[in-house]
Amino acid sequence: MEFKFSQENLNQIEEEVKKYPVKKPVVMFALYAAQEQNGFISNEVIDDVASVLQMTEEEVLGVVTFYTMYHQKEMGKFHIQVCTNLSCMLRGGYDIWKQVKDRLGIDNWQVTDDKIFSLEEVECMGNCGTAPMIAVNEDYYENLTKEKVEEILLSLKKSN
Ligand code: FES
E-assigned strands of 32-116? Predict the structure, then answer.
């Protein structure tokens, strides 16, 4: 599926580029904008980001695959990331991971049939002091218990 940045996104990228002597540092901003526009980072998105920022496709792909916030396939309306790294693991991260998997009936990197939820197990999201935690899109939920997770899932289902 073809992808070209919208004029609005191109204008914003141009503004960001002005802050640096070269275009490369804007790659994360551009990828984020592209994901917002396209829903995920396709090969065509990578091509366009590379062309706009005068980078190689390989350089852009390296950034895409390094950061968990970029998705190379279409995710659900609510993309749930469950941290199971050390601090979260010690405070029940794997119980939460299993709870969310069972509740949604999907596994890592899968999307529910109705495309409402997708799931991803992630490494540390920088909130170890308030472990265990999950993220739903860009919102962080911390100091979680099984009950709180249940409430979050229910409220997401209701909000749909
Ligand atoms: S280990 Fe989960 S946020 Fe750091």
Answer: 78-83
- Atom index in ligand 1 nearest the CA of residue 86 equals 1
72 CB within 6 A, ligand 1 = no
- pLDDT tens digits along 31-80: 999 999 999 999 999 999 999 999 999 999 999 999 888 999 999 999 99
Dihedral (Cα; 121, 101, 41, 35), 10-degree rounding: -100
Cα-based distances in Å from 75 to 24, 40, 79: 27, 7, 6
User: How far is the centre of ligand 1, averaged over its atoms, from the C-alpha of 126 (Å)?
Assistant: 6
Mutate to test the pocket of ligand 1, among 127, 130, 140, 142 (most ligand atoms within 8 A of CB): 127
- Whole-model pTM: value is 0.84
